[in-house]
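Model the whole thing, not chain by chain.
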Amino acid sequence: MSDTTTARPLLTPERVEKLRDYVPFIAIALVILMFWAISGDRFMSVRNWTFIAQQTPVLLLLAFAQLMIVTTGSIDISIGSSLAFSAFLGALGMLWFGDVGLILGVLAGGFVGMVNGCIISLLKIPSFVTTLAMLIIVRALVIIMSDGTSIYITSDSGASGGNISSVAAPWLLSMGKFPAIFILAAIVALLMWAFYEKTVFGQQLRAVGGNEKVLRLVGINVTTFKIKVFAAAGLMVGLAACVNLARAGAATPQAGMMMELDAIAAVALGGTPLTGGYGSVVKTIIGALTLTIVRNGLTIAGVPPSWSQVALGLLLIAAIAISLNRSKIDVVK
Amino acid sequence: MDGLDTAPLLTVEHVTKSFGGVQAMRDGSFDLNRGEVVAIVGGNGAGKSTLAKIVSGAHVPDSGRICIKGVEIPRADHSVSHMQACGIEVVYQDLALVPNMTAPYNLFLGRIPRKWGLFVDEKKMRKKTREVLKQLNVTTVQDLSQPISSMSGGQQQSIAIGRAIAWGSDIVILDEPTAALGPNETGEVERLVEDVRDQHGTSFILISHNLDQVRRLADRIIVTHHGVTSREFKRDEITSDRLVKAITLGE
């Protein structure tokens, strides 16, 4: 490290490397400024930010689930279906056992995750293929179980009638609104940060993504660890499903469709390489917020939904192109 | 139980190991004394890696006896974690480090100290890492928060050897420790092995293709040939020619 006294260019390679760390933060600031400039007070209003604070939590929890799995170098594309399945079982649980039955929703997510983990670890089928199969199977199960109908959460018990299933749970509906939903998300985010950054389990997620073989050599049981990771992520999906149930006021067979892709996009927008070994909870929060804000901003600016999807796709490519140093990657698969 | 103190640190007697139809180890025997460096040499497929993996616990032998300090290891207990508990550690040829993790994490791999049962005790890890690096006279590793992929090969191998000796192990198996390193870094690692042996009385089992290195470091050299530990030489009584003959022809 010999420091020379000659003038150095402003963007040295080390500085560029350091800057890459800040890309998610710069991106979200630019996005906010841009929509503020375009839509003014309609975007920058308390009402709209309350809306964003209500919209983000479900995506955020799904992104956390995805972050755990992506850090180990795997991927889970079944979480959208798992969300529908969990929300449905949560609602059923409430029909059967009352309010406590909602816990069934969380457990259902953990169960789907555990099944994923077992298939991947024990049968040694790549996570992409396994969770693709589960995406199809679990969605089909929801449709079979629900017979295509929804279970509604209502604010009073008198509203249900006929063959429409409904549960009266006004407390759950109020959980789905600002500020309760926001406070819940903030608590989960804090716990997730401690879990991911400070625990032995969290460090092991990165180590598995870095060199799984070595961990096996030193006697760590990677097979059961991976099952635990998928189960833990599944529990997070189950929690997201309960939050979604509160937010949407219904468990529908179509819930969570394409949400797996949003979750992956939020993780990637947070600068986490999908190849594993690295990741950050704070940047994943930024990623999930960016995604929600862009979608919200484009809607307010009057961009048709199809075109906003195009814009989101382009943003994703741009974010990854800038935030990851691809010159060190020799093979792109 | 007399004679325990005079028994060799490690005795391997007539171990065998097959994989499917292939007999990788037909008859492996050798012993290792305290503070000794024993090299195992042999051509490709001669069984030296298999022998090392049996000692490390990665392979369970089909038959034969392994004794540590005169006490036989029951075959049912034969595993990496049991051998670690008995004081045997391995440094692998491909470094066996986790590249995206820090030096402290790699040093503590598989033994991460916990706070309140759940959290990583980072302070303890950093303190111990500095101690180990100081013991090894490694002064080049300064920043403990960097992933080790940003370090040189020699520094990485120092961490790997540090991991092997940091836990008070009696026996360290070096599996091609310098195969991936340049000449300067190889010298650095060899110096480290000699220092550790002299200061801690650690015993080493060296698996190497590099016969010059074997003759520099080893007190005794075991030659494996077609899955049999066929010959044994003392460092002083061997010439390169005889060693090559023993490896290629088994004589």
